[in-house]
């Protein structure tokens, strides 16, 4: 039975009970007891019903208060699906990392000293389980129709049913599936993130305990995740007690995307480590184990040799030589046995799974395990060699045998000592210079230092110089000898050649006397395949079509050129032909240049000036939005209101096209009284248009100092502020510059106070309050934040701000993720922050509705509708504001919004925004339904800003574009067919609409009254005229003179 259901119980009417006949005494008593019992049961049921209804009413009131005071979960199906997809992707990333950690644990069990990495990987998996549970709970609160909660009992103890069965066979800690703590709540998220950072750090330290392989990419990924986790935990500590508010929950949900990128990076790096790093470490450990095993084998064999040799000397005692032999050989046997045992001990220790890592073991233990086997074996060999030399003399061997044994043993011991010293020196140099120098480099440095000593330098250099002189003298003598013998050979060869030539001349003279004929032949000169030679000119073969060759009398070919008339010309006429052809080509080139020049300049106009090209529809007619409307209306919208809004929005079209600027339109705004439209551009001008049909250019405000980034009308509509990089200018509605206020820091944005007596200048961490004379009235400081935009309530008590965090409260900064942004409710009287809402997306603008209850925040690809709630803390203190996220307006496709978004309609019931590609979206404020969408193809151009005219009787807004044009959108009454509409370019020259008003038609205003009245003071009041040719929409041209 639900709480909201009302169950009908029977009343306490006993007339329905059939008494029948009059009972006897006992029956009457039993019947009375039955009636009493039934009455009691009915009373209990009625009490239960009343209590259940009371509970239901209380719950309904609490639910209503929840909806009034806090944000409600997202009801839009598209947003539910997008949010659920984001969480599911995050869940897959965590599960993939968990799988890779399991695979890594299985692969690492083959390695020595793997207990640390196994324990750290299990703790990391356990932490991932806690994080996934918290993010699932958070997503289930935001998207209840798409995300299902998991039972806490199953997560806390998944083997609950089989607990008794598996009690005796308990698995090791590193193979147990991680579980969720039973006391885990949403408020524990900052602490869990800190634990997560600690666990990944421990995992990295255990991973780096394997010196055989180091993965820099995995180290960088883990360190980046560690930095971001600490930054997120530090930022989330500021929202303690607010983790059930959907605004904070949305921020936590957005963090899943940032964290998921880190998890993907670690997963891929860990997979590569399993494929490459683990086999490398395993191979290195096997190689070290094989070396120890070989060392143990050699030591065992050498101990056997030593023991066998001792059989010849152990019984020889009594003289010093025999005793020395036994002493050295017994010592060698001891060292060889110690080397064999220590090698086996080191092999067992290296292959042990539960051994401590190297930096956790005392130094003397490491030295004994790693160095003692080799040192003992070297000492054993040295002692055996010395004992062998003494045994040769003690056993009275032949002198040659004793001498040879002594010499070779000495060489062997010297080589063993030298190599051992080299190894020890390499280790010492490595530890001293941290691997930056080799032993050879250290020896070279030592050699240079020795040479710097005078005596030592002479001792090394003079013998070397003498040897070099001796070598040079020998080389010179050998070179002279080789030259002598080579000269003799050359002279001999000359004599032989002369003799041979004399003999050949004699034979030739004999043949000439016999008179044998020698045949001769002539062949024509071959032609080049690329060119044909004609006289002194070279012509391509493709052009020489009439060149023919006729054999001459003497057998050679003579070239002739055939003319068009059929006559031939000899070589003397070929240069004139080439000259004629070059002349013809020159004439053709000149004619082509003349035609191109005439086409560019026109027959009557002079050289054409460049015109600004604007995007427009191909036919040049009015832009309308005919097509199937994409309107999504939930059932909560009233049909009457929708029926009134949708037709008006569908009828919106471009009624005027203003050529406002020569460059990008940065910002525009209608005056509160609706009489003027102010625009700002990157062409260093700001234009004031007078609203009407048509719009007329009222004043052009010049800003030689830089680009104009923002315009702001005063609440009365008589004063205009224009923002530059580091200054603000005050203008009247007639275009007179009253004052220029210079600031030392860059200005982000400006905003008027409701009374119009002062304005706010956003300057980095400070928001400065300035009066109209430029005096600083007050400064509001925000610690470790960069403020982007502000909006002030009508009672001047609160200021809504949007900004980015420079660092967290603990001074931490993100390593890879985006910095946190905040929406802040700031009390101007108490100068403190009443409430803040974290966001992750880039937020730049905030717009406050006229009733001060709702605000609109513009992101890069979505809008947030924020409600300003006021809670009474107690009777002594004033009410405090709290921000509550009500709606998120997100297009169906990815759209980059241009400039700030605005409220529209008479009662701010519309949400209006423009996309950079040219799309215009209009939503219903309360329901979040998309009422109208003007597509970029229909609009025919990109947009940079948008503004709504609240004072106009019907719907009117303006848009700015990159080409400097400003379009006015209205819903006009049905015009006549003959009425002309302004257009960007005519399609029919005979029927040209009226030209768009241009700012060049009116008086040009500068930034000071003195300049407007007396000319430019910088040019010593000398008037200079500049003649500019411009073309209007009809193609006619006119001249404008500026003075």
Structural class: alpha+beta
From the N-terminal CA to the C-terminal CA, the straight-line distance is 87 Å
Shape call? extended
- Indicate the percent of residues in helices: 40-55%
Helix segment tally: 17
Evaluate the radius of gyration: 50 Å
Report the average pLDDT across residues. 74
**DSSP E strands, number:** 36
Low-confidence stretches: 1-24, 57-72, 158-175, 515-573, 597-637, 871-877, 974-1043
Strand order of the largest sheet: 7-8-9-10-34
For the biggest sheet, the summary is: 5 strands, mixed
The proportion of residues in beta strands is 15-25%
Biased composition (Polar residues): 8-22, 505-517, 562-576, 1023-1043
Keywords: Membrane, Repeat, Transmembrane, Transmembrane helix, WD repeat
Protein name: WD40 repeat-like protein
WD repeats: 658-691
Model description:
- Residues 1-34, 505-533, 548-581, 598-627, 973-1043 are annotated as: Disordered.
- The protein has 1043 residues and is of the alpha+beta class.
- It is 42% helix and 19% strand.
- It is built from 17 helices and 36 strands.
- The strands form 10 sheets. It has a 5-stranded mixed β-sheet with strand order 7-8-9-10-34, with no helix packed on it. Strands 6-33-32-31 form a 4-stranded antiparallel β-sheet, with no helix packed on it. It has a 4-stranded antiparallel β-sheet with strand order 11-12-13-14, with no helix packed on it.
- Strand 9 (685-690) and strand 10 (696-702) form a beta hairpin.
- Helix 2 runs antiparallel to helix 3, helix 3 (115-142) packs antiparallel against helix 7 and helix 7 (246-309) packs antiparallel against helix 8 (320-351).
- The longest helix is centred in the first third of the chain and has 64 residues, at 246-309.
- It is extended, with a radius of gyration of 50 Å.
